[in-house]
Amino acid sequence: MCDETRTNGLLMCGYNGRMDELLRRLDTTPRTMAHLTAELRDQELDAAEAGEWSARQILAHLRDDESMVMRMRLVRMLVEDDPLLPDFDEQAWATNRNTSHDKKESLLADFMLQRQASLNLLQRLTPEQWERPGRHEVRGSMTVRDLVERWADHDDEHVRQFERATGDTLAAVLERRAHPGAESEEKR
Ligand code: NI
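That is the input. Now the predicted structure with nickel (II) ion docked in place:
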């Protein structure tokens, strides 16, 4: 069972530092996205190089993926016996999904809520549940632990993609916030 301890206010199962680290990464992403979106205006949210996603599309993708792909896979692996997990064509999904009217505040609030729902499940997994299997259509056999590693890496990939789309970085945002008077000409 879960040894309930708290790290930075986050409920953790203390049996494995690696799992805690994965959950910490998942817990951090909504705040990262909040920092990265805070100063963006609509024009900047929707700017995109040809063939690339805009910042708004990336944020919408993280929101959609959380409940409809990642948590769905998790729940199926917890309740079904070695389920077959369909692949998900995120390019096709993004192309056919009209998120241009979604306000960044709504997308961000949705993402935060959905991520918290995922963490509520993940924080209470037993060691046995972390090892439950599933079969991904393309990636093959995986455990819940493999899924969560992929989940955290997926966050990081899209955070970097978001930084490329806006030409800004989390480090730069935090630096500007720490030194509000020192806005340089290179920023916008
Ligand atoms: Ni993705």
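The chain has one domain: 4-175.
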